[in-house]
Amino acid sequence: MNVLCIIYGIGRGVETSSATINKNIIKPLSDLDIKVETIYVLNELDFIENKRSGDYGAIKSVPKNIFINEERILCTKEQLLDQKVFKYVKNVKDVHNDNYKSYENLLCQLGMLKEACKRKDFFSFDRILMVRDDLIISTSNLDFLCLLNVSSHGPITSMWHWHGGIGDRFILCMPELAVKLACKINEVKNFVSDNGYLNGEHLQRYVLEKEKEKIMAINLKLVRVRLNFLVKENFYLPFWRPYELLRVFFAVFRYNFRKILFYFSKN
User: Fold this and answer.
1) pLDDT value, residue 139
2) Band of the pLDDT at 231, cuts 50, 70, 90?
């Protein structure tokens, strides 16, 4: 089996996060005698100023080969940001009230995923894994043998931090769907036209529902890294959003049902 691991981001705090991504994702996959190809799409920024995240300061140069056997794809903000799309979304409500900075950052993230799709033939791989570079993977016992098998029946993400949509920090899926998710910037105008705002998790749900995909979820805890601190993540089930809670429940149920079938078939 061949797996393409796409890591993407701006290199913020990556010296901290990369150790856990290597230890808890890339190495366990390689230990299964699976051919793992890792690309790191890096948006090279020298300085970050983001009031919403609390980040302010210079970003260190990212050391070479910070991820195991990485192939690095260097990009600039100018290359990644689709100005026509950005101009379009600036006509709708700025839900974060930060002069559209969060929208701009999200579009750059989407640009990185699209760049990965341009550089690699997704259909030459059996599975595609997409994960942000600023995440500490605090779950160290992922059953990748099961995950890879079950992902043939649908995409898998974390059960945490859906924020009314579907979590987009980590996803494992088949290449056909991965192309749609990596190129979801193509759906931004449609999403904004339908909803009147832009949001990463809501866009993820929009694309998955358009593709008629049933998401599965696992108890994978991801903690975001910032320049000088870790985000204090709240791992609470969203009882205040009962419909989301129900969707999370069914996503976890789908995964565990497929997991039981997988291990039953092995015996």
Assistant:
1) 84
2) confident
Helices (H), the chain: 14-21, 27-31, 77-80, 83-89, 101-119, 144-150, 175-182, 188-195, 200-210, 242-266
For the stretch 28-57, pLDDT in tens is: 999 998 999 999 999 999 888 877 777 788
8-state DSSP, 134: T
List the one residue out of 195, 226, 236 whose CA is nearest residue 95.
195
| The pLDDT of residue 229 is above 70 | no
Question: CB count, 10 Å around CB of 246?
Answer: 10
**H or E stretch covering 90:** none
Strands 55-58 and 47-50, how do they pair?
Answer: antiparallel
Pairing of strands 70-75, 127-132: unpaired
Long-range contacts of 241-250 (CB under 8 A, 24+ apart): 241/164, 244/162, 244/164, 247/162, 247/166, 247/215, 248/159, 248/162, 248/217
CB 43 within 8 A of CB 77: yes
User: 137: closest CA among 16, 34, 227?
Assistant: 16
Cα–Cα distance, 263 to 267 (Å, whole number) = 7
Apex CA 57: angle with CA 54 and CA 60, to 5°? 120
Across the strands, what pairs with 225? 230
Task: Determine whether 91 is exposed, middle or buried from the number of CB atoms within 10 Å of its CB (0-12, 13-18, 19+).
Answer: exposed
pLDDT tens track for 52-103? 777 788 888 999 999 999 999 999 999 999 999 999 999 999 999 999 999 9
The whole-number pLDDT of residue 54 equals: 75
C-alpha 131/C-alpha 99 separation (Å) is 27
- Domains, the chain, ordered by start: 2-266 (3.90.550)
